[in-house]
Structure prediction request, 245 residues.
Amino acid sequence: MNFDIITLFPEMFDSIMNTSIIGRAQQKGLLNLSFHNIREFSSNKHKQVDDYSYGGGSGMVLMPQPLFDCFNYLEKRHGGRLPKVIYFTPQGKVLNQSMAQDMALEEELVLLCGHYEGIDQRVLDKYVDIELSIGDYILTGGELAAAVFIDCIARLVPGVLGNPDAHLEESFSNNLLEYPHYTRPAIYENYEVPEVLLSGNHEKIMKWRKRESLRNTFIKRPELLENTKLTQEEQKFLDSLNTEN
Prediction:
């Protein structure tokens, strides 16, 4: 999968994108990250990329010229047609796992990292396909959001994770939070691993995990249960949790 990242600060991605799973995926050729510094496309002799907003107001706005030229460059690089362009902004739809799964089907994506008070609206009107947020809060720029997005999408690309089915039981993959995990030793400071996990009975373990997943979701993110299809047995268990509370 190929990512073109348009940014003022490509160095912000160095440590995050070159370590752990994402770093290894690039070494294997499963991911390719290309960074495009907006300042390199500025026609201004001082490499200026921002200016004051018409109508007044605090803060600066990224100018259209460097970004138009950057997108024109990418368009030529991609044979005359831009891949899907994503702009990271607090005004965008909040990224979730379902959206990530859809995005992971793309072979190429262009990521636009905003800064200052934002980007000239004409850039968004002409080039941006999707506006995305990673939460209802404000960051100093889109680089951190883009890094989170890349990590979230990349791990869904076949071959990136060592176990190809690893993401299937993770939180949000089935609209539920994941069940608790335990490792050795079986008893630590009087805290014991649930007996069912030591039984070797896979059917009972799967049933326990589903119940604990429901319990976790009920306690931590109950709103997720509104869109979750449950069996009669699972609904009965959920009703028992409601009764307890």
Notes: The chain has a mean pLDDT of 94. Helices lie at 14-17, 20-27, 64-77, 97-103, 121-127, 143-154, 202-220, 232-244. The domain at 171-244 is CATH 1.10.1270.20 (Trp Operon Repressor; Chain A). The chain has eight helices and nine strands.
